[in-house]
Amino acid sequence: MHFDPIGRVPGDPILGLLDSYRADPNPAKLDLGVGVYKDDRGQTPILRAVKLAEQRLVDSEQTKSYIGGHGDAAFTAALTQLVLGADSPLLAERSGCTQTPGGTGALRLAGEFIARCLPGRSVWLSDPTWPIHETLFGAAGVPVSHYPYVGAGNRLDSDGLFAALETIPEGDVVLLHACCHNPTGFDLDRAQWQRVLEIVRQRRLLPLFDFAYQGFGDGLEEDAWAVRLFAEALPEMLITSSCSKNFGLYRERTGGLIVLAAGREPLENVRSHLAAIARGLWSTPPAHGAAVVATILGDEALRQLWQSEVQAMRQRIAGLRTGLVEALTPYGLSERFAHIAHQRGMFSYTGLTARQVHRLRDEHSIYLVDSGRASVAGIDAERLDDLASAIAKVVA
Ligand code: LMR
C-alpha cells in the first residue's frame, strides 16, 4: 500500500489538547490549553462590533470574486494604521501590508520570504516560544536558533537575552514578541526594549515582530510601543499582525504581514516576492474577516464599540490573574505563583512541570500545555477555587 510506510506523527501540542478536552466526559473539566478568550459563561462570543459589521456586509456585499494577492486594500491600510499608529509618517512612505490567513499565515509567508530572498540567514526564537514558530520556519527551510528568555525560578532572563543577542551573526533575523509573550506572559519593559533596539542596530539584525495580542496587554496603543519604537528607528523590519484574538475572529483567519523597507523602490521589490510566494501558498487570502475588520475600523461608532470590547476582555483577563493568585493564598502558594498577576496577555507560564500538568489533566480534567503554559483567558471565574485546589494537590 502507498500509505503503509508513512507511520504516524504526534498531534499538535496545542490544538491536540482541544480534541482531548472535547472528548473528556467530566462535566467539571477546564480548558486552559489553546489561547481562546472565554467570557463569564465560558463562551467565546462573537464581538458585538463584529456582528454589526457582518450584518452590514450581508446587505452591502456585491460580489464573491477574488480579492487581490495582497488582499483587501481597505483592510491592509487599516491594519497598518492600527499597528504603526494613525499618524505615523511610515504609513505612506515605506510600509506595505500583505493580507494573510491569520498571524500564522503571516509567519509562514515571512519564513518563505526569508528562505527565498535572504538565504542562509537564521531566525532566532526566544526559548521558550510558541511551538508553532519552530514548525513554520522549519517547514520554510529556514535554520532556527534560540536566545534565552526565561531563567531560573521562572523569571524573565533579560541579562541572558541581551548577552545572547550580542552574539547573533550580523544579518540574521530575530523574532520578538511585541507584547503578551506566548507562552510565558513575561514582557520587556521600555528600558529593556531600548537595549534590544541598540543591539539589533549594532549587529544589523532584521527584526521580525510577532504581534498577535495587540490590546490584550496594557492597551491597543500601549501594546504597540515597542513595534513603533523599532519602526521609527530602523530602515527595515517585518511585523506579523493577527486579528484572531483582539477581534475574536479566530476561525476567519485574518491577519497581515507588514513590511518596512528603506524606501518605495525596495518595498515594491519585497512585495513582488511576497505576492509570488503567497500565490503558491494560498493563492488569494480569505475575504470575510478582513472585510469585517475594515468595516469596524472604518466606522467611528463601530471602532469605539470594538475598543470598549477589547478593553473589557483585557480587564477580565487581568482580574482572573489576580483572582487566581488570591485563590491560591489559602494554600500558602500566593508567593510561589505571584508572577501570574504580573504577566501580560492570555497566557501564564505557571512554572508547573510536565508531570504536574499531566496530573492536572488525568486527575482533575484540567488541560494545560505540557510546558506549564495556562491560558488564563480561558478560566471560568467561578472555578478559580477548584483550579487553585487542584494546583495545590499536584504541587504538594
Ligand atoms: C495559542 O498559542 O494557543 C494560540 O496562538 C492558538 C494557536 O494557534 O496555537
Automatic annotation (TrEMBL):
Residues 29-391 form the Aminotransferase class I/classII large domain. The keyword Cell inner membrane does not apply. Pfam families: Aminotran_1_2. CDD domains: AAT_like. GO terms for cellular component: cytosol. Its cofactor is pyridoxal 5'-phosphate. Gene3D superfamilies: Aspartate Aminotransferase, domain 1, Type I PLP-dependent aspartate aminotransferase-like (Major domain). InterPro entries: Aminotransferase_I/II_large (IPR004839), Asp_trans (IPR000796), PyrdxlP-dep_Trfase (IPR015424), PyrdxlP-dep_Trfase_major (IPR015421), PyrdxlP-dep_Trfase_small (IPR015422). GO terms for molecular function: identical protein binding; L-aspartate:2-oxoglutarate aminotransferase activity; L-tyrosine-2-oxoglutarate transaminase activity; pyridoxal phosphate binding. Keywords: Aminotransferase, Pyridoxal phosphate, Transferase. One of its GO terms (biological process) is L-phenylalanine biosynthetic process from chorismate via phenylpyruvate. Belongs to the class-I pyridoxal-phosphate-dependent aminotransferase family. Homodimer. This is Aromatic amino acid aminotransferase. It comes from Pseudomonas saudiphocaensis.
